[in-house]
Amino acid sequence: MDAYILDKARVRASFNRAASTYDAAAVLQKLVREEMLSRLDFINISPKAILDAGCGTGYGSLALQKRFRKSQVFSLDLAFSMLQKTHMQGSGLYQKLTEKIFDNKKLICADIENLPIADASMDLVWSNLALQWCNDLDKSFAEVMRVLQPESLFIFSTFGPDTLKELRIASDNGNTHVSRFIDMHDIGDALTRAGFNAPVLDVERYTLTYDNVKSVMLDLKAIGAHNATIGRGRGLTGKGFLNHTAEQYEQFRVNGKLPATFEVIYGHAWKPISMRSTGHDFAPIEFVKRK
Predict the structure, then answer these.
(1) pLDDT above 70: residue 175
(2) Please, where are the H alpha helices in 19-150?
C-alpha cells in the first residue's frame, strides 16, 4: 500500500483542533490568497455562484464576496470547526456583508473528492492551498469539472514537491513524516484528463525562517498540517527522533536562521462549452516561467 495515502479522519481531526490557532500562524496562506486574488484582476468574469473549496477560516470566501458582491459564495471544508470559524466572520467590520455570505445554507462540510453539489451549479471554483489534502487528484478535478457551468473558471493553488524539503531530509528515518506533493506538470496532465481547457500553471517559491526546528513544527501544528500519511510512525515520537531531526536540520541554517521552503503551484483553467470535444481540440497547457 502507498505509504503517502492520507488518513482523511486524521486530516479532519487536525484541522478541527487547529481552527482556533490557524489564523495567527497562516502567514503563507494569506500571501498566497492575496496573490490569487490579484490574478483575478486580469480575468473578466461575473460569477453568480462561487465555491470556495477548502475555505479554512473563511477569509478567502469573504474576499470573494467583497469582490463579487452580487454573487452567492458557498464555503466548503473538511473540518466542521473551520466552518464554525467561517460563520463567526460575520462580526465587527464585515457584519452586514457576512450575514449574506456566511449563513448556514452556504456552509458545506465535505471533501473536495466528493462534492455534495449539483451538476453545473457553480460559475467559479476557487481553492487556496487545499488540493494537497486530496488523495485522488483526478477524482477531485472531475468533481470540480462536474459542478462548474460550461465556460466557467477553476482557479487554485497547491503545494509542489519542494515544499518542506528541509524537514523531509532532516526527519528521514524510514517512516513518512512529510506529505508527498504533486509536480506542476503532473497537475497539468490531470487537468487535461479531466477535460479542462487552456490550463495555465506556474510556480512560486517562498521561504519562511525560524530560530529552531521546534518553531517550524509548532507553526505546522498551529495550521493543522500534521503528518496524516498512513506510513507515519505510530505511537509517541521519542526525544531521540526529535533531537536527530534538529541535528540534521542544522545543515540548512543560513545567516543564523533555519529555512522552511514552500513551493506553491498556481493554476487556472476553464470548463469548455461542450464536453463532447476531445482533449486534442483544447488549447495546450501553458507553463509560465517565473523570473
Answers:
(1) no
(2) 22-25, 27-40, 59-67, 80-87, 95-101, 137-147
Residue for cell digits 483544447?
282
- Dump pLDDT digits (tens) for 75-89: 999 999 999 999 887
Q: Which of 98, 72, 74, 73 is nearest to 87 (CA)?
A: 98
CA distance linking residue 70 with residue 47, whole number of Å: 8
Structural domains for the chain: 8-162+181-206+264-288 (3.40.50.150)
Cα separation, 181 vs 130, whole angstroms: 12
Q: What is the C-alpha to C-alpha distance for residues 35 and 206, in angstroms, rounded to an integer?
A: 12
pTM strictly above 0.70: yes
Cα–Cα distances (Å) from 195 to 14, 79, 113, 115, 126, in that order, read: 33, 29, 16, 18, 17
Beta bridge partners of 238: none
Q: Which distant-in-sequence residues (6+ apart) come within 8 Å of 89 by Cβ? A: 57, 58, 59, 61, 62, 98, 102
